[in-house]
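Design request, tokens follow.
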């Protein structure tokens, strides 16, 4: 089996490529590991940055908490 990686610039290109591959009956897999940071995520990050540094949480602990709380 051969693997081809295609980098698409937006959702429109992604939809177009999916439809084309389906019509041509070519099987494909989408890698959905990439995600966009939502406004809500940005808000939480900004709130965290604004906190008193005396309440500092090491990055690894903070990322572990994010993963546990939000599945990131």
């Amino acid at each position: 089996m051969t693997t081809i990686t295609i980098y698409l610039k937006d959702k429109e290109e992604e939809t177009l490529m999916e439809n084309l591959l389906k019509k041509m009956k070519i099987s494909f897999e989408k890698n959905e590991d990439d995600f966009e940071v939502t406004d809500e995520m940005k808000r939480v990050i900004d709130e965290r940055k604004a906190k008193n540094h005396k309440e500092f949480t090491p990055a690894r602990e903070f990322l572990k908490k994010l993963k546990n709380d939000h599945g990131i």
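Comment from the thread starter after seeing the answer: thanks! The mean pLDDT is 86.
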